[in-house]
Design a protein that fits this description.
Length: 196
Amino acid sequence: MEKHLFNLKFAAKELNRSAKKCDKEEKAEKAKIKKAIQKGNMEVARIHAENAIRQKNQAVNFLRMSARVDAVAARVQTAVTMGKVTKSMAGVVKSMDATLKTMNLEKISALMDKFEHQFETLDVQTQQMEDTMSSTTTLTTPQNQVDMLLQEMADEAGLDLNMELPQGQTGSVGTSVASAEQDELSQRLARLRDQV
């Protein structure tokens, strides 16, 4: 079918070329008519006029045939395209049928449950591994050396590192600082009210 389509399109182009050739020949015949009239040779002018009219009619006929062949080619093109689309759709429908037949919801659900269980197991194993690694690292590096290095780095940065303070004292220091800031803000607010 595609070979016939190619032949039809080729024929339409050939007919268009022939029409253009006839147009050129018609123009050439008209030029010859002018020359013959200028020379006063009316009989030759009449012959060239007949040739020009014939070329014009042939050009119109070629164009008409080209248009008809183009119309047929367009119909064939539509048929070829529809055939391809139909084949593709048939393949998709078959694939969908096969997929729908193999879709077993129970199997899919069981597979997802197993996946989630394995994922949870992996999380537990990863957490266990991290805990083991951190305890091993703590055992292999002496705590006093770690503390000394932290103090050294704090001294170089010009910071005060209070590692000796227990957690309870750190909390009370933070609370007392916060209450002192609150008192200062209250005093400033009172002064602003007095100014107003």
